[in-house]
C-alpha cells in the first residue's frame, strides 16, 4: 500500500513508489498493490494478471496530494487479503501514517493479519504509534536502498515471535 497523500509527496512518495515497484517486480503472482489518499486506488487487484511493467508504470506515475484516509486503505487491503490462498497474509504499508480523519484506523489495523509499516526516517512518529497500538511491526527508511534490509528484518521477525 502506497500513501499518496499530501504529506507523502515529493521524495517521500518517490521512495514509497520505488519500493512498491521493486516489490511488485519480485512478488509472486498472487499480490495486490494499492495507493491511497482521500480515496483508495487498486493498482493491481489480488486476482489479476496485470503485467508487472504496468504496475510499475502506474506506481511511478503517482502524484501526492490531499488528505489521508488510512482506515479506508486498510479496509481495502483487508478485502484484497480475504481472497488470498496463501497461508501468510502480509500488508506492507509505505506511509507516515498521518491519518487526517477521525476514524477507526487502529481497530482496522488490528484486523489485518500481519501489518508491516515502512515510514520515512524523518517523520515516523505516527507510524510507530500506530504499530504500537495495533501490534504491527514497523521500521523507518531514509532511502529506497534501505528498504530491502528493513523488509527482511521485519518479515523475519514474525518467524521468531512467540
Topology:
Blueprint: E1 2-3, H1 11-26, E2 33-36, E3 40-44, H2 52-60, H3 70-82, E4 90-94, H4 105-111, E5 114-120, H5 125-134, E6 137-141, H6 147-160
Parallel strand pairs: 1-2, 4-5, 5-6
Antiparallel strand pairs: 2-3
Helix pairs in contact: 1-2, 3-4
Task: Give structural notes.
The chain has six helices and six strands. The chain has 162 residues and is of the alpha/beta class. It has a three-stranded mixed beta sheet with strand order 1-2-3, with helices on both faces. β5, α5 and β6 form a beta-alpha-beta unit. α3 packs parallel to α4.
What can be said about this structure in brief?
With 162 residues, the protein is an alpha/beta fold.
Radius of gyration: 14 Å
In angstroms, what separates the terminal alpha carbons? 27 Å
Shape: globular
Q: Could you spell the SSE succession in H and E letters?
A: EHEEHHEHEHEH
Which regions contain 5 or more consecutive residues with pLDDT less than 50? none
Give the biggest sheet: 3 strands, mixed
Oligomer: single chain
Write down the overall mean pLDDT. Answer: 91
What portion of residues is helical? Answer: 40-55%
Tell me the number of strands.
6
Strand order within the widest beta sheet: 1-2-3
Secondary structure class reads: alpha/beta
Beta-strand percentage?
A: 15-25%
Total number of helices: 6
Amino acid at each position: 500500500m502506497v500513501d499518496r497523500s499530501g504529506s507523502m509527496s515529493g521524495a517521500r512518495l518517490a521512495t514509497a513508489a520505488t519500493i512498491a515497484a521493486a516489490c511488485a517486480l519480485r512478488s509472486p503472482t498472487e499480490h495486490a498493490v494499492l495507493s491511497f489518499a482521500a480515496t483508495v486506488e487498486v493498482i493491481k487487484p489480488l486476482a489479476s494478471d496485470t503485467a508487472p511493467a504496468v504496475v510499475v508504470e502506474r506506481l511511478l506515475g503517482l502524484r501526492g496530494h490531499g488528505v489521508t484516509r488510512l482506515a479506508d486503505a486498510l479496509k481495502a487491503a483487508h478485502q484484497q487479503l480475504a481472497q488470498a490462498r496463501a497461508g501468510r497474509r502480509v500488508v506492507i504499508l509505505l506511509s507516515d501514517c498521518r491519518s487526517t480523519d477521525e476514524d477507526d484506523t487502529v481497530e482496522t489495523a488490528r484486523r489485518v493479519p500481519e501489518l508491516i509499516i515502512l515510514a520515512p526516517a524523518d517523520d515516523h512518529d505516527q507510524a510507530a504509534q500506530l504499530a504500537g497500538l495495533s501490534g504491527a511491526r514497523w521500521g523507518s527508511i531514509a532511502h529506497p536502498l534501505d528498504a530491502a534490509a528493513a523488509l527482511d528484518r521485519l518479515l523475519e521477525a514474525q518467524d521468531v515471535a512467540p
